[in-house]
Amino acid sequence: MAVTRPDEPPPGLIASVRAVGREPEAVHAGQRWGFGAFLLVEAVFILSAVFITAVARTSGMDLGSSVSFVLIGSMVPTVLAAAVAVTITYLRGNGPFQDLRLAWDWADVKVGLKLGALGLVLTYVAAVIWSKVVGDKNATSAIGELVDGAGLPLGAAVAMFVYVCFLGPVCEEVIYRGLLWGAIERQRWSRWAAFVLTTLIFAASHLEPLRTSLLIVIALPIGIARLITRRLTASVVAHVINNFLPGLTLLLVSVGVMPA
Questions:
Q1: What is the DSSP letter of 8?
Q2: Is 0.90 topped by the overall pTM?
Q3: Which residue range or ranges hold the CAAX prenyl protease 2/Lysostaphin resistance protein A-like domain (predicted)?
């Protein structure tokens, strides 16, 4: 089998999967952050979500139907946590482009597009099966429940679409398949270990217990993109593609173009 450099993906999707061995990836010199950094970022995510919820309750807001609460409560903790993750790489490492493997490569984009398309198919099949097992409502996310049968102001609908399809995927990839994956690399564990752990923790971190197994299925192609290319760009693209049709559907439903 041909030997490739750590930052050079093997040719072809199937060949790339077969080429993934049990060896750990090389850690960048100067990376002085690990699991502690990830735990700090997760603490920022959880505490900011708790703080927003507490403020909303104190103000007497109806948490189940408030557009502002669902949008702010979904966006702010994730964006804030990703910003802290990026800041850590500057303060304790070489910056996000090196430490989080954010180098741009058109080959990674192609891999991300292929696996993102595969993810759409898996997501649809898994959602259909899941809805039959647990019921339609239990398979719906918090944002999905908000727009179910109700209209949103145009500005809120567009903000929701941008977050679900673009901003959210980028931030989540920075946190899980960037920072967490890098922390696992620093322990010299295998890439398969990084793939499995980041997939499970990503699913559990959404704090939606009923949907955790569905989220694991959704996360598999995204994690594979990171696994075989060894860079974050492919998983970001796969995540964006995976979220695009669901996000577009939510947008069209929320503004009344499509029936709920």
A1: S
A2: no
A3: 157-245
